[in-house]
Amino acid sequence: MLFLMDLLVMLLDVVYFILRSCVRIVLRPRTKPVDGELVLITGSGGGLGRLFALEFTRHGAEVVLWDINTKTNEETAKLVREQGGKAHTYTVDVTNPEEVYRMADQVRQDLGRDVSYLINNAGVVAGERLLDCADNMVERTLKTNCHALFWTVKAFLPQMKANNHGHIITIASVLGLFSTACVEDYCASKFAAVGFHESLAHELLTEENVDGVKTTLVCPYIVDTGMFDGCKIREEIELILAPLEPLYCVQQAMNAILIDQPLVCIPRLTYLPFLARALLPWESNVVTYRFMGSDKCMYPFIETMRKRVANGAVNAA
Ligand SMILES: NC(=O)C1=CN([C@@H]2O[C@H](COP(=O)(O)OP(=O)(O)OC[C@H]3O[C@@H](n4cnc5c(N)ncnc54)[C@H](OP(=O)(O)O)[C@@H]3O)[C@@H](O)[C@H]2O)C=CC1
Ligand SMILES: CC1=C(/C=C/C(C)=C/C=C/C(C)=C/C=O)C(C)(C)CCC1
């Protein structure tokens, strides 16, 4: 009897949450304030990380900027300060656990308070086909996009739990939900990031007295930051699925964060290939990939990366 009651309650809950999600697409819930919060962003020296810093500043938060590149990180801090915000920069390689723990202690010591928002944004891609890719480049992708999440969360979650207040945001990718050819290192690392994030979210939901610690998984499609320059699908399909403007992407992610949304795919259309991967036979997905030009979409990207390496614009190893 108890089982049947539980089953009924669960089914009603399932229907309630489906309806609530549909209603929320039209009627956006009220956003939570972040003024005065301490927001730590990894990979803040450029691209989305820099824009997150500026958006959180616009909402009144104080930002802690972690990047491996001191110069570009200082430039982000300058932009934040020009907006009237408070920024604190640290040069950190997030792939090194000792460095992450040491710098987390340093932040606490310097600022005298706890980080309440952690944006795990730092990310890299090898940009080479598997058989041409140096082992250390594969390792770099996995360490940056996946292992680093363990180190930063271990460094900041204990205080969030103790305060029953915090928010952990993982910038993953649609390539953590479905894959394509020639980005094995990246897809493996982003699928792992999604797995890590979801397991953490479940863990927090099973624990007592930590309902104030929220999680948001952000999965964007191609964003025009330069990271995936050259990546291209069939032109006709690109008309409805163009690469995202970085600011649009960050604003959509911010909306999700500020309403405590657990997952956001940007744009919404990319929920479809995610569903197709789960529901359709493998071969059906293969033929849609071919039709949409998404089977070879990374070929021109890899060419672009090769040219950059040849010009000395990026390091091959
Ligand atoms: N651009 C895209 O199409 C998409 C990107 N994403 C994800 O969004 C996130 C941001 O990407 P995007 O802004 O485009 O990338 P960028 O390359 O523009 O920015 C990434 C930043 O992270 C820094 N970084 C790299 N390695 C480390 C490290 N070990 N420790 C600390 N900082 C590091 C980089 O420094 P440096 O420049 O010196 O290497 C850079 O400043 C990434 O996780 C990416 O995977 C998701 C979907 C699509
Ligand atoms: C595979 C695939 C597609 C193309 C996806 C691409 C090109 C994603 C690129 C994502 C990037 C660069 C993410 C970075 O983190 C479509 C056309 C959506 C639909 C069919 C399946």
TrEMBL record:
Please name the Pfam families in this protein's record. Answer: adh_short
This entry carries the following GO cellular component terms, namely:
lipid droplet; membrane
Q: Which organism is it from?
A: Chanos chanos
Q: What does this protein do?
A: Catalyzes the reduction of all-trans-retinal to all-trans-retinol in the presence of NADPH.
**What enzyme class is recorded for this protein?**
oxidoreductase
Q: How does it sit in the membrane?
A: Multi-pass membrane protein
Among the GO molecular function terms of this UniProt record, one is: all-trans-retinol dehydrogenase (NADP+) activity
Enzyme Commission designation: 1.1.1.300
Q: Which PROSITE patterns match?
A: ADH_SHORT
The UniProt keyword set, sorted, is: Lipid metabolism, Membrane, NADP, Oxidoreductase, Transmembrane, Transmembrane helix
Compartment(s) of residence: Membrane
- Name the Gene3D superfamilies for this protein: NAD(P)-binding Rossmann-like Domain
Q: What's this protein's family per the entry?
A: Belongs to the short-chain dehydrogenases/reductases (SDR) family.
This one is known as: Short-chain dehydrogenase/reductase 3
Q: Which gene encodes it?
A: rdh20
Q: Which reaction does it catalyse?
A: all-trans-retinol + NADP(+) = all-trans-retinal + NADPH + H(+)
